[in-house]
Amino acid sequence: MPSRPATAFQPTERSPLVGRTILQIIPALEAGGAERTTVDIADGLVGVGARALVACEGGRLIGELQAKGGVWLEFPAATKNPLAMLANARRLARLIQAHRVDLVHARSRAPAWVALAACRMTGTPFVTTYHGSYKGRSGPKVLYNSVMARGDVVIANSAYTAGQIAAQYASAAPRIRVIQRGTDMSLFARGVVTPERVAALREQWRIGPHERVVLLPGRLTEWKGQRVLIKAARLLADKGQRDLVFVLAGDPQGREAYVKELDALATERGVAGNVRRVGHVADVPAALMASAVVTVPSTEPEAFGRVAVEAQAMGVPVIVSDHGAVPETVLAPPQVGPEARTGWRVPPGDAEALAEAIHAALSLRPSARDALAERARFFVERNLGLARMVEATLDVYAAVLETAGRR
User: Fold this and answer.
1) How do residues 124-146 score in pLDDT, each as one tens digit?
2) What is the DSSP letter of 223?
3) CA distances (Å), 65 to each of 36, 43, 249, in order?
4) Cα 76 to the chain's mean position, in Å?
5) Is 292 helix (H, G, I), strand (E, B) or coil?
C-alpha cells in the first residue's frame, strides 16, 4: 500500500479520533480561507487515523483534498432554495447513516441549516465555524445567520469574531471556542519557493526586471479595498515612485460592473499602465515572494486576515487596515514599539496613509527588512501555525464526541 503524503500536522500520540468519521460541509472547495481550512482539517483527520469526508458541489481544491486522503461527497450544498434545502436535509441524513458519520462540521450558513436538520434527524453531533462576520439587522436575516451559533461547539476564527458572535447571540457564548486559522510554515517559507516559480509569475504578470510589485491578493469585491490601493498608486507616482506595479490578484466572481469601475478609476487617476488585474493565483507562496510589499486595505473588518499572516510567514512586508482581527495577526505601533513591529496598520479607506506605509516599507534598508522578516515569521510560527489550528480543532471534535458518548 502506498504511503500517505506527508502532512504539516504530525500527531504525537494516539488520537481518540482513530476510526471516527467526520463530515465537513461547505458550498464548494474553491479558493478562500474557509475552503483552505476545510482541506487542512481533512488532512489532519486522515493523519490521526480518522475518515475525512467533505460534502460540497466541487471546486479547484477537490484534487488536493483527495490527494491528502479526504473523500469528496458530491452534494448541492450551495443552494439557498428552501425547498431544495429541505430535500438536502433528508439526503444528508441518508449520507450520515450510510457512511456512519460521527460528527458533522458546517462552515457556511445555507449548508449549516441543512446539516442542523440532518443531525437532528440522526442524533449526530453538530459543530459550526464562523469564518467571517455575517451582516444583517432584520429579523429574518438574524434568524438565518443564527444557525452558525447553534453548534454543540461554535468555533470562531479570531477573538474579534468571538466577540461578534457573543454580542449577537448571547446564549452561544459558553459554547464558543477561538481557533485562529493556521498557516503551513512548510509551504510559506522562502527556502521552498524556487526562483523559477517566481520568475514564471512575474512573466505572466508582465513585470519588468526593474519593477517592484505591490500585491493585493483577494477576490475583486468592493470591501477588499482595491479602490483604495489604486488611489494610493496615484499618490506614490506623485512622490516619484514610478517603478511600481500594483497587482490585483483575485477572481471577480461575476462582479463585472465592479471590474469596470476599477479600470475606469485607474484610467482616471493616470495609473492604468501600472495596475494589473491577474485573476486567481494558484501559487500563493510564489506570488508573495514576487512582491516587494503585500497590502490588505479592506474597508470592512476582516474576521481573521489569512493573507496578512501568510505574507508575514514569507517575510514580506505587509500593510493592513487597522480594524477587525488585525491586532491579533499583525503587530504594529502603538500596540508594540517600532522595534517589535511585524507590519503596518493604517486607517481603513485612507489612501494617503496606505501610500505612506507602502513608501516606508519600500524604503527599508536591507538589514531592517531582514529583521522585520525574521520577527514576522517568528510571530506567525509561534502563534498562528497550521499544527496549532489542526490540533485545536481535532480536540474540539474529540470533546464533542466524548460528551455525546456520555449522553
Assistant:
1) 999 999 987 777 677 888 889 99
2) G
3) 10, 8, 23
4) 22
5) coil
Report d(CA 148, CA 34) in Å as an integer. Answer: 14
* DSSP annotation string for 74-129: E--TT---HHHHHHHHHHHHHHHHHTT-SEEEE-SHHHHHHHHHHHHHHT--EEEE
CB neighbours of 338 closer than 8 A, spacing ≥ 6? none
Cα 304 to Cα 186: distance, rounded to the nearest angstrom: 21
> Which residues, including other chains, have CB under 8 Å from residue 34's CB and lie 6 or more apart?
26, 107, 108, 129, 131
392 close to 156: Cβ distance less than 8 angstroms: no
Amino acid at 59: G
* Cβ atoms 167, 177 nearer than 8 A: no
Residue 121 cell numbers, joined: 434527524
Q: Residues 278-295: what's their mean pLDDT?
A: 95
| CA dist 129 → 121, 146, 154, 278, 389 (Å) | 21, 12, 6, 31, 13
Note the pLDDT of residue 7.
56
In sequence order, the β-bridge partners of residue 295 are: 319
Q: Which of 358, 321, 345 is nearest to 233 (CA)?
A: 358
Helices 306-314 and 366-383 sit at what angle, rounded to 10 degrees? 120
Q: 312 to each of 15, 47, 244, 295, 307, how far by Cα in Å?
A: 31, 27, 21, 11, 9
Q: Which three cell numbers stand for residue 76?
A: 448541492
Q: 407: pLDDT confidence band, cut at 50, 70 and 90?
A: low
Q: What is the mean pLDDT of residues 140-154?
A: 92
Q: What is the DSSP letter of 250?
A: S
Q: What is the pLDDT of residues 102-115, one digit of tens each?
A: 999 999 999 999 99
Q: What share of the chain is helix, strand, coil (3-state, %, to 5)?
A: 50, 15, 35
Backbone angles phi, psi at 54, to 5 degrees: -130, 120
Q: Quote the pTM value.
A: 0.84
Centre a 10 Å sphere on the Cβ of residue 292 and count the other Cβ atoms it contains.
19
Distance CA 269, CA 90 (A): 54
Q: How far apart are CA 405 and CA 402, in angstroms?
A: 5
Taking the alpha carbons of 396, 44, 105, 324 in that order, is the dihedral positive or negative?
Answer: positive
